[in-house]
Amino acid sequence: MSQQDFAAALLDPDLPAPAGLAAWNGSDPAQRFRVYRNNVIVSLIDALADTFEVTLELVGEEFFRAIARLYAYACPPQSRLMAFYGAGFPDFIESFPPAAGLPYLADVARLEYRRIVAYHAADVPGVGAEAVAAALADEATLPTLGMTLHPSLSVVVSTSAVVSLWAAHQGILDLSTVAPDAPETALILRHGLNVEVLQIPAAVGAFLCELQAGASLGRAAAEAMSIDTDFNLVSILGLLLQKSAITALNPTRSPT
Amino acid sequence: MTTASHFLPKEAGISTLRAGAVPARSGLGLKPGHFRTILVTRPDLGFFEIHAENYMVDGGPFHHYLTQIRRDYALSIHGVGLSIGGEGPLDEEHLDRLASLISRYEPQSFSEHLAWSSHGDIFLNDLLPAPYNPATLQRVCDHIDRVHERLDRRMLLENPATYVEFAASTLAETDFISEVVKRTGCGLLLDVNNVYVSCNNHGRDPQAFIEALPLAAAAQIHLAGFADDVDAAGAPLLIDSHGAPIAQAVWDLYRYTLERTGPLPTLIERDNDIPAFPVLLAEAQQAEKRLQTCRVEVAA
User: Fold this and answer.
1) What's the pLDDT tens digit per position in B222-235?
2) What CATH number does the domain containing B102 carry?
3) In CATH, what class is A122-256?
4) Shortest CA distance to B276 belongs to which of B113, B38, B62?
5) What PANTHER family does this protein map onto (chain B) (predicted)?
6) B57 and A190 in contact by Cβ < 8 A?
7) How many angstroms separate the Cα of A197 from the Cα of each of A3, A123, A167, A200, B119?
8) Domain-located, residue B85
9) Which of A2, A3, A21, A46 to mutate to test the interface with B (most CBs of B within 10 A)?
């Protein structure tokens, strides 16, 4: 037996058990090999079920485990760090024809995965309001001023009501009041020990994505203004400061 | 990484007690759902054990709570992903991550499994069996030598729970483990539940199996619950599920083991269907009682 054969048979239920297995009582070792096959696939499905709890609730246990099984066989883990298993699961859901009737499902899964990433992201202290105010007041550096955001921070832009759907499954919101096809943008970040999920205007989402991509404050704000002329820079900076989400102020190459 | 100055110099050999030993008391696996309960109630336990891979994350609550808990408790770091029985070389990046984690938390013990869990690029997330023959022996010893060299400390090797045997095996599991211990100087993490499960699954006598292990190298014990299945002949096939209370037969085998080893740090493992903390604490207290009895008997 090579481990190649053993591993291949674990990940393909249609393959026979590997050659060279034995059982003390002469029973068919293929039956015993099924324990390993089952352990592997169930542990992978369980890992996905832990990460994608709301996705599971939205489709039910049976449907979820069926799609998780297909994903696990198609994309087994390539890392020993199981906490981050399932990065490709939202895309897999999106391309899975039986889930086509639930257009919000993949984005809810994306939000859930980002929550896991945020939960385990590095601990980096935020800069204070005084430092931000001073940087904004400095006319020499302002045109190229950029901001590093907390490593836990991410934005999910969706054509569905991802935040409301997620919140309804936390008992924060009544599911019957949620219109699933209302576009929402989610801000995910960890503040202290708590991962927070906030609904933000699309323009704010664009602003944050620009900053994360290395744009200057001015350029990010201009991008946001092009989406929504009511974009309020002071208000979003206030939110970021409140959440300790600005971790560095730095010059960028992009002018205002 | 800045671990080099932290470890004893090479000529001092492999350090067993660099950060002191895990006390010969009972301990529990550390579960995120129990972090706060532990900090608030400060349960009387000998140590906590973590799965190394769960803490190989950059930051957040896991490190926050483990740092606090580590201040008051001894720690055992138990790896599940090193794939010591793997055909390929050890993953050096994973060893680096282990070294970093060990440097950060200075655990009293580091252990891994006599099993493989990855192949090529794929991590299989299970502890898989290998034939017991000279080729596997050489590989396992080479891998443990490398772990000792990289981590500069002695590791404990855990005996596996297995469901199949191999036509290619030429050595008994106990002889295989004894030889690994002899050649590498590693310690034995004696999983009593695994002994019970494997002996049932392969028609062996658990007590004779315990006797044949290198007990002088035993440095820690694991206890856990199993699940029942049957093989193709209808014979009972026990599954190491870590999802149930410890069976009476395993408690009995534990006592039998302690009579031969003397008191050893004993971990109650529970990774599935995790009950409320007091339920696990009660199991740990049950193990603690056996350890007390054992201490009295050793003293007498």
Assistant:
1) 999 999 999 999 99
2) 3.20.20.150
3) alpha beta
4) B38
5) UPF0276 PROTEIN HI_1600
6) no
7) 43, 18, 8, 10, 37
8) yes
9) A3
